[in-house]
């Protein structure tokens, strides 16, 4: 039996790194997020168009790591139901459901996935007064999706489907080798996913822009400021969303995107797209050619936080 429908949406991604000051400046002043809370060596950053109190948490640490990926649930009862199912399947908890002491509070559980990432699922978290992003305003509306690298993608994708109720939207392959899996927890084509890589690590976080014009203005701003653009601008086949990928100050890949596909759960059937057809990577044909050297930049460093709970 799968845990169907107990996760409703992606909340935030929490990352740690030694160069905290540089990262904080990048996400606030360059990427376009708004700091809603801070403490010594910790910054909570919101997207202006999102009701989430924060979509990125930065934390200063001697080692670079992914602290956790957080998802929402509809109610505390659903958090408890999910926890019972996880315990019954032998999943190791970081902590049992409890009142959270992070901004917004709420009620949540944390646990390790099969590769040691920390996952949080919470409900009753306070929301913030967000706003409509204006025309030509090139800042993120919301956190769109997060993808992670994994050396065991078939096992890990199955783990998230069976234990957390994610659904497979589409798969990418090169020839006969599958390399990328897009997972959904609502009607957005994907909120989470996995990329075949040499080790478990953060792959990229993607931020939805108001529209194509705002997406291009944000892309151009980063380019003019001298930030390395890995790939883009272009438009993917899977998800039908635009893309421009950059590196932040810690070497994590971040993406501006827009117009991510909304799917009909009753009629959707997963596709397998072969990237040997360049139109499956970029429908517009405007992006620089993706090659193994560019792809390797998003393999990232080995995640030092596996099976280690973050300090907060």
From TrEMBL:
InterPro entries linked: Glyas_Bleomycin-R_OHBP_Dase, Glyas_Fos-R_dOase_dom, VOC_core
Positions of the VOC domain: 9-124, 142-259
Entry keyword set: Dioxygenase, Oxidoreductase
GO function terms (MF aspect): dioxygenase activity
Domain of life, per lineage: Bacteria
Protein name: Catechol-2,3-dioxygenase
Organism: Saccharopolyspora shandongensis
């Amino acid at each position: 039996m799968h845990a169907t429908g107990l996760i409703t949406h992606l909340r935030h991604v929490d990352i740690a790194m030694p160069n905290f000051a540089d990262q904080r400046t990048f996400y606030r002043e360059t990427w376009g997020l708004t700091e809603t809370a801070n403490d010594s060596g910790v910054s909570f950053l919101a997207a202006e168009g999102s009701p989430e109190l924060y979509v990125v948490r930065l934390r200063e640490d001697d080692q670079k790591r992914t602290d956790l990926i957080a998802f929402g649930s509809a109610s505390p009862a659903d958090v408890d139901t999910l926890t019972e199912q996880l315990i019954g399947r032998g999943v190791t908890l970081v902590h049992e459901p409890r009142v959270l002491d992070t901004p917004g509070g709420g009620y949540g559980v944390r646990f390790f996935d099969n590769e040691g990432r920390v996952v949080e699922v919470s409900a009753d978290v306070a929301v913030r007064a967000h706003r409509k992003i204006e025309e030509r305003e090139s800042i993120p509306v919301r956190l769109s999706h997060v993808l992670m690298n994994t050396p065991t993608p078939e096992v890990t994708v199955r783990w998230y489907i069976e234990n957390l109720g994610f659904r497979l939207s589409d798969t990418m392959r090169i020839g006969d080798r599958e390399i990328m899996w897009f997972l959904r927890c609502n009607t957005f084509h994907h909120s989470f996913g996995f990329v075949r890589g040499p080790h478990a690590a953060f792959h990229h976080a993607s931020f939805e822009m108001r529209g194509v014009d705002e997406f291009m203005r944000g892309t151009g701003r980063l380019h003019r400021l001298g930030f390395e653009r890995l790939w883009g601008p272009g438009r993917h086949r899977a998800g039908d969303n635009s893309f421009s990928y950059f590196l932040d100050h810690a070497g994590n890949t971040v993406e501006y995107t827009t117009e991510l596909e909304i799917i009909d759960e009753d009629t959707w059937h997963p596709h397998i797209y072969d990237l040997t057809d360049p139109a499956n990577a970029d429908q517009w044909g405007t992006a620089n050619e993706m090659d193994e050297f560019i792809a390797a930049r998003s393999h990232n460093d080995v995640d030092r936080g596996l099976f280690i709970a973050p300090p907060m």
